[in-house]
Fold these 2 entries.
Entry 1:
Amino acid sequence: MPWVIAIMVALTVVAAGGGLALDNLADRARGDLAGGVTVQIVEADPADRSEQTRAAAEILGGDGAVAKMRIVPQSEVAALVEPWLGGGAEMEAVPLPALIDLTLTGDADPATLGRLRDRLAEAAPDARLDAQSDWLAPVLSAVSALRWMAWGLIALLAATSAAAVWLAARNALGANRDTIEIVHLLGGNDDQIACIFQRSILLDAAAGGALGLLAGGAAVLVLGAQFALLDSGLVQGGGLGSGDWIILGSIPLFALVIAVYTARMTVLASLKKML
Amino acid sequence: MNAPETEIVQFDNVGLRYGTDREVLSNVSFTLFSGRFYFLTGASGAGKTSLLKLLYLAQRPSRGAIRMFGSDVITLPRERLPAYRRRMGVVFQDFRLVEHMSTFENVALPLRVAGVREADLDGPVRDMLDWVGLSHRADARPATLSGGEQQRVAIARAVIGRPDMLVADEPTGNVDPEMALKLLRLFEALNRLGTTVVVATHDVHLLRKVPESLIMRLDKGTLADPTGALRYPPRRVAAGPTDR
């Protein structure tokens, strides 16, 4: 019995850890990208591109909807495309667009983007504005699906734990039927008899829960460390905070409540069949 | 003048059947009075154990009415039955001791069930073990006790709560005659303290050893009234030669 609860708790901790990490990741990505806009000046002529960039920066810098603006240095743009196009002298022949990174005061909604496009149309006709949230929408959608899957998994594990406890309680009842009957005939009431089983299941669940939390917590820590090594901004956004660890730490308590409640209901249902 | 006797059990036209089989008890009617000593006798299979099961509330009858300690226990809510069971002590035919408990714990069980504090258990349990001569076996498990010792543990457990009624099913069935007589003396001692005693036995020799007793005889599930014990008030059985 303690081993079953330990395994269930460990799996639930891992699933809940994953779910919480995905929650954090989605929230942080959404927060970071909600007001993020990238302006590309796609012009082959370096002088013209530079002129349009300067003009666009001037317009955008003075716009009330823009909270922060940064012209991405050309060296940084070159570094971004280096993995695909390579570096060195040949790169100088490739006309890279100029990039301006904007953070809006509000969300990058279509109305704001349309107004900014209109303002840039004359001074920087080759400027293209893209909301950063559009690029990551499919990724965020997948993250959301994974998150729901994690919570579904937790619900299934809780149901499986309850079923395992129910079976264990039934077995314990069968093995102790004589004792139950004697206590019953000596005037023990249902509550007294159920309490005997609750105490026994409580001890098992407490031992199993502690063991499961240790194993599951260790797995979450190791997985977190592995993902942190990826050094990806998106993945690092999925780290667990102290609140998340408190939630993970409370999982054995939920398991305890489920186990004790299930055992009690099982014993009471069985006792109801006796006079 | 004697105080009027209190009726503690009344069976009225009680029948009992298991499933769809024929009735194992039919039209059973009798009254038990407080402080009396009753023998329930009859051949094996006559229905003694079934009748005792009705008495110690392990079974509901298929028909008829049963009143115990002034209440109709047939219509009583299930939740209220434990309080009535606690007013009875039961010595089962097969003792039914809890195997994983010591002699002390088995005897203490009814007190624990009744909510007696742990600190208050030791004295009464030691006294009771002393009374049945098992003080030296307080820590022994039932499996290590002889048949007679197990019987005495079962009796100690049945009487430790000072029940209003003691029900014993073939309590002398597994012991030698000397031990049987000793056990009977224990029941008589309890009876003198005011407890109503009902002893089921198929040993007719035992009946004469308690001259004050009243006899009920079951024959194929029907209660006979050979001694007038079932009349109101019941007539005392004539005392025969005894080896007391």
Entry 2:
Amino acid sequence: MTIRANRCILLVMTVALLWPLTGCWDRRELNELAISVALGIDKVDDKYQVTVQVVQPAEVASQKGGAGNYAPVVMYQTTGITIFEAIRKMTITSPRKIYASHLRIVVIGEQLAREGIGNALDLLSRDYELRTDFFLLVAKGIKAEKVLKILVPLEKIPANKIYNSIRTSEKVWAPVTAVTLDDFIMDYESKGKNPVINGIRVTGNAEIGIKKENVEMIQPAARIKNSGIAVFRKDQMIGWLTEDQSKGYNYVINTIKSTVGHIQCPDGGYVALEVVRSKSKMKAAVQNGNLRLAVDIHVEENLGEVQCQLDLTKVSVIQELERKAELRVKDLVEQTMDSAQKKFRCDFFGFGNALHRSNPKAWKKLQPDWDEHFAEAPVSVTVKVNIKRTGTIGNSFMLDREE
Amino acid sequence: MLDNGKINGRQLMVLIYLYSIGTTVLVIPSGLASVAKQDAWIGGIVGVIIGMALVLLYTALWRVYPGKTFVGICQEALGKGVGTVLSLIYVFYSFIGAATVLFYVSNFFLIHFLPHTPVMFTSSLFALVVVMGSRMGLETIARTSELMLPWFIILFVVLVTTLTPQIDSQKLLPVFESGGKSVFWAGITFSGTAYMPIVFLFSIFPRVQEGLTGKVRLGLFASALAGGLSVVLVTLLCILILGPQITARSMFPSYALVKKISIGHFIQRIEVLLAGLWFITTYMKTTYYYYSWVTSLSEILKLKNYRTLTLPCAMLMVVFSLIVYPNVVYMQHWDTIVFPPYIIVMAVVIPLALWLIGLLKGSKDLSATRK
């Protein structure tokens, strides 16, 4: 009797367990999500135009190889007074709700960037679904939606292509700098540094770029390229750095991991040098009431390619190369500093923060119109280059032949 | 019959450790950073020092009134009438404490994991486990915290080690810019969240088997110190990685912090696993607040068994946690403006007064026996 009663109770309890299942409010199945990988933000007549690149799961799945009938990603676009609204509104065209946790890049149209992007970024830092590991980019000269339309080879998902190429070139190619949302906000909030964002642009024939034809060619008609750094004052973009200046920028703020540069040999021809290590220090000091800025850079390089007559058995030749390399880096850095002080009159390096750290009292005095003080301050750049190795060989095989 | 379970000194240590980390680790880095900027961690250390003084006060109080709960202490020091009133105020506070902590937990769930689930359900489910623990008695809760400790420590070590590559030591500079006043104020808020609630543990101090031996006393100090320093370490990581501004602006900075974990772009996005850390500590904190509330109330009402109170009290707690803060902005206002003076009165002024009264009475008794 008791056993039967117990069993009855057990059965009732088991059935009762089904109740909680009906009330799973936040359940979201994989096939109900539109996984967005890129977000583009533009401004069209006072409204935000939001573009989202969403993965087509069937096309991207590697096991089936993809049917090849559809494009690997699909784009949704809406406009709204606020971005949050616009993204929600996408459900009127999209069968699934946009899921933003796997966002890789956020592209901002240049026009919007020049008007100011602070308001546009609030949602990105407030929404719980977004992680903070995506990159911010500015579309150079075009609207963000244009960038998100281009199909690319090698990576099926264009957003992944852009993300990976930034990550890779940030490591091995000096002019590129990866900026995440947190970096931007941190710079925006600190009074001693203005933010920068890496630029991106479309080269070639954008008309073909949006078609699948683009990836069927060996040499795609349109490509997406990294292009220099966009300089901001607070949240408003004020201009672009050239490739050399972008390189100089990365030398100053000590983000160079590795890069390759060239210098001219004494008798014409070039030598390529690979930077393997670079260490820089920004200093800002106040002496006798005058602000002075200084950059100290230590670079370790290897000889990577020789296209001229150089006798690499001589120590003096290496020393000569070192001196030239120093001049080259110094020139890059001075160019960048020059454009910052004269053209932009804007401290996007963080000298203000350096002063804040080393001399809080002086900083307090100079902080209200820091950019002006920065623009007028003399800068001294010292560069020390050490060339350590010459690759797997010593002298070039061409040396004897040409003599 | 009240809970007869006994705990030993080691269990008390574990308990104090998890209790002082509690919700502190989740929210305090934000409060510290908004007051003291990059010096938030110094504020934390000041808080730990204040905390040590508080532990000294509580052990002194414990020594003067051995074997008494806080209710018992009030009644002995101030007589039946006034003592009961005072202990009611105290009981009310532990009720508020339990409800607000419950709000924190469900708020955290709501913001980061379950935005569309009614709060009612997240808090009810959490409260259910709390009630279960309290009904089973102190021994069960204490053993649970012992079982949880290794998990907590594993998660904590993972958190700290996986984050070290992202540290940027420049973010700490310039050190001590915000000045003594704000650092001290930060220390007060720190100890207010981490240490002052220890006063509610007076409901379990009499259950410590050994009583207040030198070893137990030392254990109390050590575990409170370890708990505080763990929170300081997390605060330091927040400043070193997120920077003071983002830390100050985040609702749950330590959660924002673990979102940053990325080792070789391979071990990443593990924030939900690490959230287990806070489930453990907040569970312990809610449970002890709640336990203290229910047992003290039953002591005042002279009930034979505190367990009859657990269910109705839990309902009160859940409902109150839904309305205790009308919105999160109010919550932040209350936490920074109202809470510190309130808890200072409850956890510093009153215990200090009780201790002095106890000392005076003690010396009177002593002189009386001498005559």
